[in-house]
Amino acid sequence: EAPTEAPTEPPTEAPTEAPTEAPTEAPTEAPMDPSCGPIGDCSEWCDQDAYAAWCAEMGATGSCPSLLCSSSASTSGTPVVSPTPAPTLAPIPQPLPMPPATSTPTPSLTPFPTPAATVLPTPAPTLPATVQPTPAPTPAATERPTPAPTPTSVGGAASAATEAVVARLEASDSTGVFMYDTGNGWIESDIYTWPDMIKAVQLMATTGVGSAKLWLGDSDDPRYGLVNVAAFLAQCMQETIQYNACDENNWSDGAVVQEAGGSAYSTTAACGQLHQSYQDYQCSAEEDAEAGGQMACDVDPDMEMRATTQASWYGAPPKLFCAPKSKVPKAPRWDPTGPWCAPEGQWGHVAPFPDDESLDTYFDYVNEGGSCRDYTGIKAGGWAFSGEGCKGGVCPGSPPIGETEGRTDVEGCCWWGRGVIQTTGVCNFGKLNFF
Q: How far apart are CA 341 and CA 373, in angstroms?
């Protein structure tokens, strides 16, 4: 019995006491900062209770975030929490949780056209001005054609906020803000400029699209509006500025084809990419009624056009285009692997088409499987009707949602994304025309 009792007692006492004391002290020390709370009152545009609860929860972990929450120096003696309330940066984070920063940039991303469709239809006052010039809203309609609308179209705090934000933007050093990747380094964009952006901010804050306007704050404090503008520009950088592109690029590479089907870099990207069909983005019944019958643009099968920009990486696909079947009966794909295109000044160089080349000449070149003439600075690539998902001499795109087969032509496919936020589809373009 002696050997049995001896080993039994030590292991029982040792593990019991050690873990009991350690976990008891650790949790007691962690919630050492019950005073961790919000840096201000955002109840007018956020859930103040949830904000306070979050700060308290962070304080319970022993770390009160200095940027978003504040703590009294007497409660926590830690050097991290104590100096937190002093910096003047404390008020700046308040705009971060607010909705406007995210609702504005989303309007018309290629996969994001839906939010824009929801925001734009709101303006009831504008409709009478456009459809029936007699009613009271007519003055708003006369302001719209003005190239540089002034903040007088909004009043009070909103006008003061617009003036404050515009003044701060005009005084800013914009060097190095709108940069794009050439493949060999980053340079200033020649498409997106700071003065143009300031004009757009002022226009959208004062005139807007119907009753939907860019929110820049409710006082002459420009920080709220600047945060909103910064959030919007971040989305723009992701969408277009980093590519120096105004028109949507053909980005349906092999990875997209594996996920969505179709052919790599098919010309049908103009019709829609990744299961989309831009010409089928119809407006709602309420929006059609607001427009007096139809808000969306009509799809014209005879419409033909060519985009103005494209990507510039090695072998990048050319500009998107649309054409009736009578001119481009079968959709080819772009082959970025060849042939190699000789640079200007070297043997074998072929001059690219000028920007004003006739569409008929360009369409003939595409139908013949031409190469190296699509844009200035092209490094490699040409049109092909086989390989990478092509069948029977045609290269279909990814099937639209609800369909089993992809497009094999580009007829009526003129509604690809355009602009810094890639406005896409017949409904969104119809709204821009209507308002």
A: 9
